[in-house]
Amino acid sequence: MGTYWAAFLVGGLICVIGQLMIDVIKMTPAHVMSTLVVAGAILDGFGLYEPLIQFAGAGATVPITSFGNALVHGAMAEAERNGLIGIVTGIFEVPSAGISSAIIFGFFMSLIFKPKG
After folding, report:
1. Between the CA atoms of 83, 85, 86 and 89, what dihedral angle is there, to the nearest 10 degrees?
2. Predicted local confidence at residue 2, as pLDDT
3. 40 and 49 in contact (C-beta within 8 Å)?
4. Which of 6, 69, 73, 117 could form an S-S bond across to 49 if both were Cys, CB 3.0 to 4.6 Å?
5. Residue 25: which domain range?
């Protein structure tokens, strides 16, 4: 299977699951997002998310489930190096670049466009 097809199918399946949670189970978007983050964290805890990333590439790294994966992956890696304190520092180390980028780009967009609110 081609890389693009795998990314499309896995990323699309994650989005379909999220949409079904909204439409069928009647979860709020915030609950869906939290559930998908926790699902990504659980999958990484069992060592299942990395093989999914190897198979689907961006289809597995772009959706919100990847954030849960990054949190657990960073915590586990730092815990191996630094013990219990590594759990706390690792949670912030891996996803910090993405979070920082979102804050910085959001700030610049608010300077360019007129924010509402």
Report:
1. 180
2. 76
3. yes
4. 69
5. 3-112
Indicate whether 59 belongs to any domain: yes
The torsion defined by the Cα of 63, 30, 96 and 100, in degrees rounded to 10, comes to 100
| Contact (Cβ atoms closer than 8 angstroms) between residue 98 and residue 73 | no
Asked if 81 and 31 count as a contact pair (C-beta separation under 8 A), the reply is no
Number of domains observed in the structure of the chain: 1
Quickly state the pLDDT bin for 8 (edges 50, 70, 90).
Answer: very high
pLDDT tens, 43-97?
Answer: 998 999 999 999 999 888 888 888 888 888 888 888 888 888 888 888 877 777 7
DSSP, res 64: T
Q: What is the DSSP string of 4-47?
A: HHHHHHHHHHHHHHHHHHHHTS---HHHHHHHHHHHHHHHHHTT
At 73, list the tokens: 């992956």
Q: Is residue 117 part of a domain?
A: no
For the chain, report the end-to-end CA distance as a whole number of angstroms. Answer: 46
* 89 in a structural domain: yes
